[in-house]
Structure formats: structure tokens, C-alpha cells
Amino acid sequence: MAYMRAMNRKHAFEGVHNFRDFGGYDAGGRKLVTGRLFRSANYALASDADLAKLSGLGITAIVDLRRPDERTRQPSRRWEGFSGVVVENHDDDEGSRHESWDGFMAQWDMTPEHFRTYIHGYYDRVPFLPRMLDLYTKYFETLAKADGGIVVHCAAGKDRTGLIVALTHELAGVHRDDIIEDYLLTNDSQRFETYGAQWAKMIGEQRGKAPTLETMKYIMGVQPEFLERSFAAIEKRHGGVEGYLRDALSVDARRRADIEKRLFG
User: What tens digit of pLDDT does each residue of 116-149 get?
Assistant: First the structure.
């Protein structure tokens, strides 16, 4: 049953990957809507057929969690006639030196162990990075107001996107087991088979040495411990997700009520 549910969430595209519906979960006796809550990787390589398919999904808001330099390197493609809301910001700062993605990549030794150390630290920090606080706040504001469907994405659709989707599920009352299950749907063997060797080659061209495919499989995926680190950091600083949503992301009672109308309406 879980397998079929996972398959029904995923939408196959030619150039867009990790696209899926994160609605439909049980949330304390209520069901999240389906067909209006989407998450994905970026749209730089979207084919014309992908754009045609996207145009039929009723998406009226796009939240792009990427840094400005990422958007410059891989600008998004939009389908003809799209006139919805696009949320982004102009802050590149995700930490200094080795804390930033580019800083880490410059000195990565190509082992999964080194990547694990980096990604653990990133998940500890990401709920509180000023640029992410801004974007996550705007995401919930958009979710509360937008008509039609919304899609949230970053570069690969797994870490920054994974956390904001998990926070949305937490707000709605989705069970933590289902939150983790949804997060782990990124670990798609077909996605790895399609992109693993290609991305390893790209890293090799940039760094003069490529990671092994086994290492690529690890860095392209997610582990429950990653998301759990963010939840633990939020618990420590704000006493839990409820306090974090209220005090850090401006989700007060009125905004929560508006969001719930969208999630369950």
C-alpha cells in the first residue's frame, strides 16, 4: 500500500526530476488536499513537453528556494501563459567558508563520510539561516493567500525543500512517520540511474576528480537523521515546531487558519 501511494505521488517528466504531490496524508482525522501541493527540483532543464504538462496542473505560485547564483547558473523555464506568483530572494549567504555549499565542494575529499559531516552541520543551521527564514516565511504567506496549486523547489528538491515540506506537514498535524516517509521518497533508484553518472562527471570536470557512483548515491539521497537534526535544533531553540512557526516564520493564529483552509479545503 505504501509503495502504491508513493507511486501515485510522483509525476514523471523528461527534464524535471523529484516532482511529487505532498498532499493526501492523514492529519488527525482530516486529509490534506491532493493536486495542489507540489515539490520538486529546479526547472532549468524542463523540456517543452514538461512545460506543457506543468501548465495543466493549475499552479499559480512557485517558491524557489535557491540562492541567486544558483538561479543565474540554471535559470528556470516557465510555461507559456504563466502569470502566477514567483517567490525568491537575493541573499546568497548560507555560511562562510566550509559552511557554504561552494566552500564545502572546494575542499570535499569525495567521501560520503566527509559529506555526512557537512550535511549534518547544514541541517543544524538551515532552519535559522536569515535567507531561509525569509524564504520560509514568504512560503507560508504565499500558501495562505495563493489560489490554485503551489510548487516549492530548490536545486535538487531534497534538503531545503524537504525541510519546508516537513514543516508544512507538522503544521497540518501529519504523523511524524508519514513526514519521514514523504521525505524519503527522494531516494528514488530511477532518479539515481538517470542522473548519478552525469552529475559525477560534472563534479569531476569541476574538481579534477569525480566521486564514485556509490558516493553519488549517498549525496543524492536523504536520510531520516538529516531531517531529525533540524527538528532537534528547532526544539532546542524554540521549544518545538509550533514555537518556531510562530516566532521565526510569523505563522500566527490567523495565518495558520488561512493555511489550513488551503491544506484541507
Answer: 999 999 999 999 999 999 999 999 999 999 899 9
Asked if 123 and 229 touch (Cβ cutoff 8 Å), the reply is yes
* Count of domains observed in the chain: 1
Amino acid at 223: Q
Residue 41 lies in a domain: yes
- Close Cβ partners of 239 (under 8 Å, ≥ 6 residues apart): none
pLDDT digits (tens, 9 = 90+) for 68-117: 999 999 999 999 999 999 999 998 777 666 678 878 888 899 999 999 99
Give CA–CA dist 255/261, Å, rounded.
10
Range of the domain at 162: 2-94+130-187+252-264
Rounded CA separation 252/169 (Å): 16
Q: Which of 46, 143, 154, 171 is catalytic?
A: 154
154 as an active site residue: the answer is: yes
